[in-house]
Each structure stands twice: as structure tokens, then as C-alpha cells.
Amino acid sequence: xxxxxxxxxxxxxxxxxxxxxxxxxxxxQLGQNFLLDLNLTAKIARMxxxxxxxxxxxxxxxxxxxxxGLLAEGARRVLAVEKDxxxxxxxxxxAAAHPGRLDVINGxxxxxxxxxxxxxxxxxxxxxPYNVGTELLIRWLTPAQWPPFWESLTLMxxxxxAERIVAKPRxxxxxxxxxxxxxxxxxxxxxHLPPEAFTPAPKVxxxxxxxxxxxxxxxxADAAVLNRITSMAFNQRRKMLRSSLKGLGPxxxxxxxxxGIEPTARAEEISLERFCALARIxxxx
Length: 285
Hints:
By secondary structure, the protein is of the alpha/beta class. It has 12 helices and 9 strands.
């Protein structure tokens, strides 16, 4: 079995045996799709860079395939947050094999305050549950203070979501998510995975995206104003901006022109730089 290379490093059994031993049938309502090939999980861990001086936050570890990859690749310490109590015994077995390097929290990542359990620098590496992945990403990108507690994010998503994260203007996937990411991060797709890499196999392909935080926003803009403008623009993305942004007031056409944007343009045509310029003008900066 391919996963045995890493399995022999940590002395733990192959993941299929772990799943059988703990009766861990993946639950659709939890967005679970287990990645069992430990060579693949180690490769994902390597995509996050040198982890030897970092704490790593992992969300949704399931039976611990990626967890084992992170530890095998030298992560200083891993904090694994798992909602499914059935997975905790399997994760505790991994913790016992790596004394002092793995802490496990049985809880919902949408509710758990992880900051008290992590020592900087912190990187987030996760095969995110499909049903909460995008929401978690947005939370990590929109903290009250920037820079955030994390240095980088290495996250697996459905391929379509990954393409939305790295999309450029005038492409089908370009929208608010790409703008939000591009404003404060460098992002790239670093790996593609087919459905058959998972158990059970999902109906879609997956991809791993690596995001590195910037020290500050790429262009100056007020976050709330930028969010309001891009929300209005992309909620009616087929309309001309002079129509979709008319809620900004009667001066919107003049503001668009001042920002270097044609009022007849549509949201998908406008770069992050132009949206930030418009946000500054609307705010009066």
C-alpha cells in the first residue's frame, strides 16, 4: 500500500486499518472525505513549507492522514480540531506516538477559540470539510486586526472553489472571493487531486491552494467600504456598474470615472486596484 512509507516512520498502521478498527465511515453531513494515501498527505504538508519552527493548525483531521503527514514532515507542533467524536481515539493514538507534538480538540472549528492553544509563528494546513471550507477561509481573511495570527494557509477545496480563490479579472471564476484573497495575500494552486484519491470519492475534483499573507493590504482601502462596494457589484454582476452601484448615491458615475472605471463596465472586468481606488473615493480619502 502506498501509504506504508510514512506509516513505517511513525510506526502506526495504514489508515484503512485505522478506519476499520474505529468504524470510521465518512459522514456526508460532516462534509467528510478521507484522504488515505500517506504519500499524498506528506506531499500536501510539504506544500506548506518548512514547519519545523511553526505551530500548525489543522481543521477536520478525520482519522489523521494529513496529521501524520504534518508530523512526519517535521511540524514543531500540531493542533487538530475535530468535530466528530468518533475520530478522537484514532487521533489520540497518533498523539501517543508523537509525545508533546500533537494536541487534539474535540469541537467545532467555527466555535473553538484556537489562539490560546497556539504559539507563533502559526501556519494553517487542512483538508477542510466541504460544507464549511469557504466560510472558514473568509473568517481567516477578515480578522479585526491585520496581519492575522497565521503566516500562511495551505488548504484543500473543491477545484471550483480553488479556482475562485486565484481567479483573475475577465475570467468565469472571478468574484468577491478572489478580490478578498488578492487584497491581503499571494495565492496559488499548488496541487490537484482526483476524486479517487478520497474515500468515499466525491463527485468533484479537488485542489490545494497556498496563501501567504502580506504585511498589509496590497492597495489602501477601508475594509468595510470595499466589502460594501464589491458586494453590490458582484451581487448583480451582469449589470453595468452604474446600475449595480446606484445605491452609493447620485454621484456614482462621477466616482467611477474618477477611479478610472467606465460606468458601463461590469464587475468581472474590474481589477482589485480599481475597486480599491473607488473605495477610497467613496469614503472620501
